Amino acid sequence: MNPYPLSSGRKPFSFKHSIRPLVRPLLVFLFLMTCYHTFMVNGVVPSSEGLNIQQSNIIKVENYVYNNLPYEIILTGSSRTAKIEADYFGQAQVANIGIRGGASQTGLELVNRNHNKPPIMLVEVNGTIAQGVNQELVEAAYHPLFYGIRRYLPMFKQEYQPVAVAIEILKNWQGISAEKLEQQRVNELLKNPQMRENTLRPAIEERREKFTVKQINKLTEESQILKNKIAEIENQGVRVILFDVPGDQLIDQTPQRLEEKKLMKQLFPAENYEWLPEHPPKEWITTDGIHLARSEAREYASFIMNYLGDF
Fold it and tell me: How much is the pTM?
């Protein structure tokens, strides 16, 4: 007698039956993703500039890496450089990969990994180089798995994340723009000397003292890393021009800022590196003493183009 009867009342396992409940949700998902991609490609879905500093940096890096365009000029640096937007340079094909809260080393690392090298790179050199390379940002952009997905399916890029896009649509509907908000702030600063003084005070106080030995050692250490990255990209035929973005005169004349400029010229001597000339003296308008207002950033971009001429 067989103690294990063949018939137990259970149906035999069927792979076809096991996946049937998943088919409809999967088809709905694919349909929605296809619609989203179609709307995005046709410009119905707007791209976002980011909900915060981190996402804004990721979007900027992703656009540079995945668009993979043959740029004529690339700017790299910190948030000071980030304010000099690419479309301020007229017809020239320009990419700005200035990283907010970052430094030029990150941009150079990105360009070194990209097979499309520009004829010219403008590299911001000042105290921000102490920030070093944002390796996490670089590795995420060139991740072997996501690189192909994001390059050929842009809807997976940060600028098309649904929440960010929804907020962008809401801002457009309400007529809110970063440019309009900034201009309002600049107008207030120009009309109200006390407000301007209060805005500049923290930055002035922070730069009243000269660098400590530890800070100088850090800047010297990072300058060597920056030199190596510059040499690496120059060996690939790229013309590298160093520059320092101007700011409010009251801050640019603080002891630390003056020492910073002097130290950078010592670490990157003019006989070995090409420096963008200093802009003729003027009272630069900023949003906080450090970052140029958009109108001023446009003027500085024109100054750069005048220096470059026909490249």
Answer: 0.85
